[in-house]
Structure formats: structure tokens, C-alpha cells
Amino acid sequence: MNKTLANLIRLQELLEQHEQGDDTEDLRKLMDRVRGKLTEAHLRRFEHLIERGRLAVARVSESGACGSCHLKLTAGDSLRFRQPQDPKEDRVFTCPFCGCFLYVASAITSKKEATAATP
Fold this sequence. Notes:
By secondary structure, this protein is mainly α. The protein has a single domain (about 5-115), classed as Helix Hairpins (Orthogonal Bundle), CATH 1.10.287.1490. Helices cover about 45% and strands about 10% of the residues. The protein has 5 helices and 3 strands; from the N terminus they run H-H-H-E-H-E-E-H. The protein has a 3-stranded mixed sheet with strand order 1-3-2. The two termini are about 15 Å apart.
């Protein structure tokens, strides 16, 4: 999994933790650190989705649907998401319908990998 996607997933996890009542200074600092690792464009899209009550990062289902809006992706998009990426490439895919960042379950080997993106 690329670093941008790992950081987006981590930021979404931290925001969920914050919404569940964890409002510690350490959590806020960690969220700021993860935000600092994202490009302005990625962060702007992420915040836009969150402000509208949407999932910012969602998994593509086995049937090829977006995990946020549940609309079926085109066969071409679904195939493109499932193709292995060059590890040097740091691309993130977005849903053409709702705009959330998408990943395929096989892109995440363990939850530790997403957590490892933050120091």
C-alpha cells in the first residue's frame, strides 16, 4: 500500500477515535502529524468529505462497488483498482460518483501497515 493511502486511512481512524470522545492533546498532535504528511489537495478532499458526513476512505467491495456510496464501479475502474501498483508510485484512486478515496482489501495486509505510516 502506498504512503498516501496509508496516511488517509490512519487519519480516518484517528478522527473516528476523536468522535468517540477521545479528545486528548496527544491524539490532536498525532492527527496534525498525519495531516502534515498529506498533500493539500488530498487533505482538502478528505476534509470536504468528512464535513459532509461521508466516509473519506472506503474499500471497494468484492462485487466492485464503492464502500461509501455503494454504487457499482465500471469494469474498467474496478480492474484498474485491483491491478498491483508500482511501489514507487503514490497514486490514490477516488470513486467517480461520491469522490471518496478507494482501496481494495488486498492492498491492506494488516492494520499494522496503515498504522506504520505514522512515526
